[in-house]
Design brief:
It is a single chain. The protein is of the alpha+beta class and about 625 residues long. Among the domains are: about 260 residues, FAD/NAD(P)-binding domain (3-Layer(bba) Sandwich); about 150 residues, Sandwich (Jelly Rolls). It is built from twelve helices and 29 strands. Strands 23, 24, 25, 26, 27, 28 and 29 form a seven-stranded antiparallel sheet that branches. Strands 4-3-2-8-22 form a five-stranded parallel sheet. The protein is globular.
Length: about 625
């Protein structure tokens, strides 16, 4: 029982502190809304935290789809982690995420705080009731806009929002890969483990309560160091060499996503404790198999860490004004109200998980390219001030199987937080933002380094769009004018960046000459961070080893930003040791007619690359 009562009030209240909730909360706060984020765990990050240790996958499908890594707030977090945590230690990553929340102006974090109840008024959520276990405090947190980032859609269901669970039948959306009839099947939860080579034989004594597995049981589940399976151990239902495959990982140092249970239970949420206990029996039973049942050459390996918090794949999905479906994904559909995108394969795990011995653990429906996600998927259709961030967004089961991954959830979260702040500013509902302010929302997201396929920078206040752009040198396809073409990443065969010739002793310079002198208050520079490869922390050595240690070599490290009037410097900023893709520089309305960026060093590449320059 709480020993004290507290009341707090905010513009935006985010419930759930995984990456989607974090990105939503940070975005809302940055866009001017007083914001709270409520997390029932002792740390932020959800499945990406040290409690679960799942790596953050997304639209680039483990680097098999070029230029599709997610940017925005997620990219900021991952780049900062690469700068300060090059060996990808998960507890250090916890600190990076905690810091990102706690140093953000306008944002208050509530850790160890479980939402126990809500208060409704006139069909809207008026407040949530939370108990913080560490302080024995009962909080009543009021807000104008509420964001459900709980994963399970808990806030939404408590508020009476329409939800669904399981698979739709084929006829509902005409999805070719859906089952003929609807069912209640869900993908299960997983417990990860980490193993280490001790350099000497290490015995393992199987707990009496652990299961026993044979080679026959595990014949469809790669589980030895020397086995690298296609499609991450799943059955590729549709082979498409250009569609972005899910590369195989079956290293015993980080096993295994396919230790999965829950889909066969009547209620994966209500029976979560039983699912966790059964997963423990499976984890230790599989380790016993690796060590004692068959000879896998693992005599020197020892368990170093086993998760106690399962990573949840699937439960409820909340209904919005639109339900994303398989046909949208296969068509790479670009919606008029698009605010995010995905590209991960429709990765649909089998119902019984580990215990479906006669099946591959996942059916993988590949597709080329990427798709957009409409804003209408990110708010409840029947609770007026309720928005959705994460895996509970409005989608069919098959679309969910792609959109559920953390990279996609994160960029959707940033869109939701940005829209929530707009709803507060305009005094309107999230639905009205979509109907009356969608272009402003899209342009704001692009300005803040999000990517929306099919949409360009059309910001009328950006002085760079009408500037004359020149450079001291440029490469074919990497012309200086690319920095104002409206696209801040490579697409297909287009570089979309300025790329200089090799850097000389004085560096290479990009020059933007304004149409007429203006009082410049802000310059925004977007650099290259190699969006075709991964930079997330991972317990999988294969994934870590193919990443650069530290920051991407393409990233500009040292540069000077100069404002000039009639050839004379009126303001200048020198940056050494830059570690971010988006750099925003403020000035005191310096009257100038030229903006110059002189790059003198990178984190490894021999030339400068800049994707976008914006001037305000």
């Amino acid at each position: 029982m709480a020993t004290r009562q507290r009341t707090a009030e905010y513009d935006v209240v985010v419930v759930g502190g995984g990456l989607a909730g974090m990105c939503a909360a940070i975005a809302a706060a940055r866009n001017g809304a007083s914001t709270a984020i409520v997390q029932n765990r002792p740390m932020f990050g959800g499945c990406a935290s040290s409690e679960v240790r799942m790596h953050i996958v997304g639209a680039n499908c483990h680097a098999s789809k070029e230029n599709l890594r997610e940017t925005g707030i997620l990219e900021e977090i991952l780049l900062e982690n690469k700068r300060r945590n090059p060996h990808a230690v998960f507890p250090v990553f916890d600190m990076i995420m905690w810091e990102k929340v706690h140093t953000q102006e306008n944002l208050t974090g509530y850790l160890n705080s479980n939402m126990d109840d809500i208060v409704m008024a006139d069909g809207k959520i008026a407040a949530i009731i939370c108990n913080q276990s560490t302080t024995e405090t009962r909080f009543t947190i009021r807000g104008k806009i509420f964001v459900d980032a709980t994963g399970h859609g808990t806030l939404s269901v408590m508020a009476g929002a329409a939800s669904r669970m399981g698979s739709e039948g084929r006829d509902e959306f005409g999805e070719p890969s859906a089952p003929p009839e609807p069912n209640d099947d869900t993908m299960g939860n997983s417990l990860m483990f980490v193993a280490a080579d001790r350099g000497e034989p290490v015995a393992f004594v199987k707990p009496e309560w652990a299961y026993t597995f044979t080679e026959q049981d595990l014949r469809y589940r790669p589980h030895a160091e020397e086995i690298i399976s296609h499609a991450d151990g799943g059955a590729i239902v549709e082979e498409d060499k250009d569609g972005g495959r899910l590369p195989g990982f079956s290293s015993v140092d980080s096993g295994y996503w396919w230790i999965e249970l829950g889909g066969q239970y009547n209620d994966i949420i209500a029976e979560a404790e039983d699912v966790r206990d059964e997963l423990m029996r499976c984890v230790y039973g599989i380790w016993d198999h690796l060590k004692n049942v068959s000879n896998h050459g693992l005599a020197n390996y020892d368990l170093e860490w086993v998760g106690m918090v399962p990573g949840c794949r699937e439960s409820r999905r909340i209904e919005g004004d639109y339900i994303l479906n398989e046909n949208d994904i296969r068509a790479n559909r670009v919606f008029d109200d698009a605010v995010a995108y995905g590209g991960w394969a429709m990765d649909n795990h089998v119902r019984c998980g580990t215990l479906d011995f006669d099946k591959y653990p996942s059916e993988i429906f590949n597709f080329k390219g990427c798709y957009t996600i409409p804003y209408r998927c990110y708010y409840s259709r029947d609770v007026d001030n309720l928005m959705l961030a994460g895996r509970d967004i409005s989608a069919s089961k098959l679309a969910f199987a792609s959109a559920r991954v953390m990279g996609t959830c994160s960029v959707g979260g940033q869109a939701v937080g940005t829209a929530a702040a707009m709803a507060v500013r305009y005094g309107c509902s999230p639905r009205t933002v979509g109907r009356e302010h969608i272009r402003e929302l899209q342009q704001t997201l692009l300005k803040q380094d999000c990517y929306i396929p099919g949409f360009l920078n059309e910001d009328e206040d950006d002085l760079a769009r009408k500037a004359r752009v020149e450079a001291s040198s440029q490469t074919p396809g990497g012309e200086a004018a690319n920095v104002v073409n409206g696209v801040s990443r490579g697409e297909e065969n287009r570089k979309n960046c300025w790329e200089s010739m090799p850097l000389g002793g004085g560096g290479e310079t990009l020059r933007l000459t304004l149409e007429q002198p203006a009082g410049v208050r802000e310059v925004r520079l977007t650099f290259d961070t190699d969006l075709s490869h991964e930079i997330m922390p991972s317990i999988t050595k294969i994934v870590r080893d193919r990443q650069v240690k530290g920051l991407p070599r393409e990233l500009v490290r040292d540069y000077t930003l100069t404002l000039r009037r009639d050839g004379q410097t009126v303001a200048e900023k020198e940056v050494c040791g830059n570690g971010q893709r988006l750099n925003v520089h403020q000035f005191d309305a310096a009257l100038c007619d030229e903006v110059l960026v002189t790059v003198t060093g990178t984190h490894g590449l021999d030339r400068a690359r800049i994707y976008e320059v914006r001037i305000y």
